[in-house]
Amino acid sequence: MAKSLDFLTEALRRLPGVGPKSAQRMAFHLLQHDREGAAMLSRALYQAVEAVHHCALCNTFAETEVCDTCLDERRDNTMLCVVETPADQLMIEQTLTYKGLYFVLMGRLSPLDGIGPKDIHLEKLIGRAADGVVTEVVLATNFTNEGEATAHYISEMLKARGLKVSRLARGVPVGGELEYVDAGTIARAMLDRRAT
Amino acid sequence: MAKSLDFLTEALRRLPGVGPKSAQRMAFHLLQHDREGAAMLSRALYQAVEAVHHCALCNTFAETEVCDTCLDERRDNTMLCVVETPADQLMIEQTLTYKGLYFVLMGRLSPLDGIGPKDIHLEKLIGRAADGVVTEVVLATNFTNEGEATAHYISEMLKARGLKVSRLARGVPVGGELEYVDAGTIARAMLDRRAT
């Protein structure tokens, strides 16, 4: 087969979740039906690699030294919400329930995968949270084992520095039917029940 | 979010089978964990779009005017095997049961998708098959409805020009247990039964 086709198939396998068969199918598709798309993707990758860095304040992807969210003066700079990824931040933004600033870990603690405190930029988080303006840190890491462990670790670390730390509430999801919700979630919802 | 990140996510959606969530996950993964892979993929796409064209004889992807397979003098140039895609050709090569040449349609007839005879290069196939050297054309399109219809169409077309046309045998797959093979396949295997 053509050498640049082999190279392209090999390169497509660097995408997460793409195996040899999908890579081949993608390469054939682009060359047969969407060369314009292929050229566009090539440029987009090049540009992103060149231009995208991390925001000096919140650590998310940004093309400027400080991202637009951190620069937005209408936001409440006494609140800092810690999330694992930019996608998580977007989800929280969509709820319109939070007007503070963010810190994006770009990962979670995962000792089994060799991901320790340094890999999720905790030094940078400490510096950011201890700026004297932030009064509350909301931990919004995932409610998975790793996310919970990460939240616990950060909580201990920040409380030792005198900061107020909170965590998103756990409980039965909106629209959830008790019959189909797992027992662990119901147990947590019972323990965290609120007066009405 | 960073503009070049948006552009990258948009461009990744041009890949077949990639929706908005996967595209975002891919973009984040490349920028966070594999910038080298992203740069490599960018180059691979660019190179492939520039270098890969179609073989003048068999219509498969090639960087030269005529592909290596067509140039290989050890192959039997009296046999021509018609397949839908380069992937199908590779599968047949792996069986080591065929030593002739190929013609790659780069598709199949599919009136519902607006794919007619012109889109699968049948004019080029006629020219190739009628070169005076080819004596048998083996139809190896898929055994789907569309593949069968394509084989039928090509068969009529080439037989009208006096060429011998054959089709891969249908029947129970190797390792197949009758209990789990569909009735259509068993019916075909019964009709096509062979003396032992």
Written overview of the protein:
In chain A, strand 5, helix 7 and strand 6 (164-167) form a beta-alpha-beta unit. Helices cover 44% and strands 13% of the residues of chain A. In chain A, helix 1 (3-12) packs across helix 2 (20-33) and helix 2 packs across helix 3 (35-51). The model of chain A has no long low-confidence stretch (mean pLDDT 92). Chain A folds into 2 domains: 3-51, RecR Domain 1 (Helicase, Ruva Protein, domain 3, Orthogonal Bundle), CATH 1.10.8; 69-167, Dna Topoisomerase Vi A Subunit, Chain: A, domain 2. A 4-stranded parallel sheet of chain A has the order 4-3-5-6. Chain A has 8 helices and 6 strands, in the order H-H-H-E-E-H-E-H-E-H-E-H-E-H. With 196 residues, chain A is α/β, with parallel strands linked by helices. Chain A is globular and about 65 Å long. At the A-B interface, helix 1, helix 2, helix 3, strand 2 and helix 5 of A face helix 1, helix 2, helix 3, strand 2 and helix 5 of B.
Q: What is the H/E string of chain A?
A: HHHEEHEHEHEHEH
Can you tell me the overall shape of chain A?
Answer: globular
Q: Give the helix/strand class of chain A.
A: alpha/beta
What is the percent of helical residues of chain A?
40-55%
Give the strand tally of chain A.
6
The second-level CATH architecture of the largest domain in chain A is 3-Layer(aba) Sandwich
Which CATH C-level class of the largest domain in chain A is it? Alpha Beta
Total helix count of chain A?
8
CATH topology heading of the largest domain in chain A: Dna Topoisomerase Vi A Subunit, Chain: A, domain 2
What percentage of the residues of chain A does DSSP assign to strands (E)?
A: 5-15%
Largest interface: A-B, 53 and 53 residues
